[in-house]
Amino acid sequence: MIAAPRAHVRASSIFFALLRRDMRVARRELPFFLLRTTLQPLMFVIVFGYLLPRMGFMGRGYTTALLPGVLAISLTFSSIQSVALPMVQDFGWTKEIEDRLLAPLPIVLVAAEKIVAGVLQGIVSALFVLPVARLIMGPIPDLTFAHFGDVLLITILGAAAFSSLGLFLGTAIQPQQIGLMFGVILAPMIFFGCAYYPWQGLSAVPIMKYAVLINPLVYVAEGMRASLTPTAPHMPLTVVVVALIVVTAIFWMLGRRSFLKRAVG
Amino acid sequence: MRALRKVYKGSGKAKRGGSGQSARFGPPGMSAPPVGDVVALESLDLDIHAGEFFGLLGPNGAGKTTAIGILTTRVLPTSGTAIVAGADVVRQSVRVRQTIGVVPQRPNADLSLNVLENLQFHAAYFGIPFDVASKRAFELLERLGLSDKTNSKMAEMSGGQQQRLMIVRALMHEPDIIFLDEPTVGLDPQARLDLWEILRDLHRRGRTIVMTTHYMDEADRLCDRLAIIDRGKLLALDTPRTLKSRAPGGTLIELVLDGDAAPAAKVAEAIDGVSHVEANNGLLRVQSSRGGQTLPALIEAAENSGRTVTDIHLLQPSLETLFVSLTGRKLG
Prior knowledge:
By secondary structure, chain A is an all-alpha fold. Chain A contains ten helices and no strands. Chain A has helices spanning about 10-30, 30-55, 60-95, 100, 105-135, 150-170, 180-190, 205-210, 215-230, 235-265. The model of chain A is unreliable at about 1-5 (pLDDT under 50). Chain B is about 35% helix and about 25% strand. The interface of A and B includes residues 8 and 13 of A.
């Protein structure tokens, strides 16, 4: 066959083309994306951060625990969904991803690009929810933006951990079981993820306090507390950062393996 | 391709050996696969020349798509090697992808993007800037009769139009070699003829084309050379003309009976002009140099054996009859 020498295309330039494609699609679907990923946490904010405190059922201090948790839910679930849903759809029936798998770059970079796109979408959703939630709940005791660098770090690490989880779930789960992913994996994760209550509060039920540590959402929520409401009870930031790096590494390795298995027969 | 072999592990055995991989390089051995495994390719050897229009012909399940999958780096061979444009499909897959364009069996355009964006982004995946890509996209869309679809979404296009778009997309990065996997399946007759013309044109412009098909006429009219494969094995490899001349002489007659054809087959062997007889349950297959003139005697033989003839087919010497004589079954 022809062995014509060809100008080598840099993998980084292809990587950015893939990212550009995902950003264009995300920009176009932004309203639906925000609706899908932030409506549920915002409704929670309305009920538990606005209505119940006004009815006198909740102490006003509860919003201090709630805001970082809601932020954690929004960013992690937008990351997980923005990676898992296209994976399920692309590998399951539309096969759209095949064109990208035929691009002249190592296939693992196609997976890595999805993680980066997922992180960016997590950041967007956090940026959207933070002011809206603050607006609904009114002034929040102990809230500070003095440690914005830490907030950003937790946002990126949390989004990376859940994008990697999304890569794993999206490639390991059969398309017909996608509903199960929400019901059996994501819903318990939200309720036992220390998003609606601080981890320290679980001292009342010690067995729960240690059981929930396998839930990665705990570290994102506690990390948000450590950086947004540092005077309220929270896990040490160092513990959170190390945990999120470990979780990201584990899910990336699992996700990468299952992605490659789907991508190359 | 050298000694190319691909075994898909049976689902019940996928975890065996603990590797978790469905396909791996291994020593080239021809030992019988474990129960449940599917051998898609069995030691396939092929050389395809630059500038050639090459056809892989075989029925569904013959291993054509697996062969294309390996050559386009999307499937890992279990053993054996394949070199495309001087690069190994496993060890140098990025280099291979650089030189090939792939037209899939089913259109798989990016549904979130319109036609032009699909082409621009495809080109960008090959390092081509958007402005260069747009110019090329307009030219190709024009050439393939899609210029009015530039801003359309996939849902607004017919199957034939989407298939043509797949060809445009495969050409965007100017590949030397184009792989097409059953490109005309599901197209109406006119769209099919249009597509043939497009492929001939590409071939005239110097492209190497490798196409799979299970349509005899398509293979016959388009391809310089053909490989007939079935059940993962290469059965014949030559130009369509030579292959047709190898087809067994005479007419192939098939009689469908309402019961076992074996007793009738015994009688049929003695009929004048009959060179080859085969019985397969209710199917009586006869090669005859006297064509249809053999029919009355055959029907009589069947009825004398207590069977009724329910259907009759006559096939003139062709790729089809060659295929039937090689594999014992029909295409498609």
